[in-house]
Amino acid sequence: MSTTASDIATWMVDIINTERKVGQADMVDAIESKFGSEWIYVGDSGHPSVDRAVLKEFRKAHRGAVKWHRDDLAWYIDDSPEAESAELPATE
Hints:
Layout: H1 5-19, E1 21-23, H2 24-35, E2 40-42, E3 48-50, H3 52-62, E4 66-69, E5 74-77, H4 81-87
Antiparallel strand pairs: 1-5, 2-3, 4-5
Helix pairs in contact: 1-3
C-alpha cells in the first residue's frame, strides 16, 4: 500500500494532538524519516518544507483545531480557556 498525502496529514494531526506543539523543522524531519523525501520540498526561503499536497490535506484533516505560530514556525493546539469557550456553542 502506498502512502498518500491524506495519510501523512492524518498522522501530522495525531502527532500535534499528542505533542501539543511541533516545530516545522521537527515535522519535516519526521515526515522525511517515516514517509520519505518525496513528501518534502525546499521552499522559497531555502528551508525544507512539508509537501503542498500534504498541507492541503492537513488543513482539511484538522478542521481549524491546529494553529500556526509564525514566529516559532510551529503548529500547536490552543489550550487557552478563551479558545475553548470560543469553540463551545452558545447556550440560551
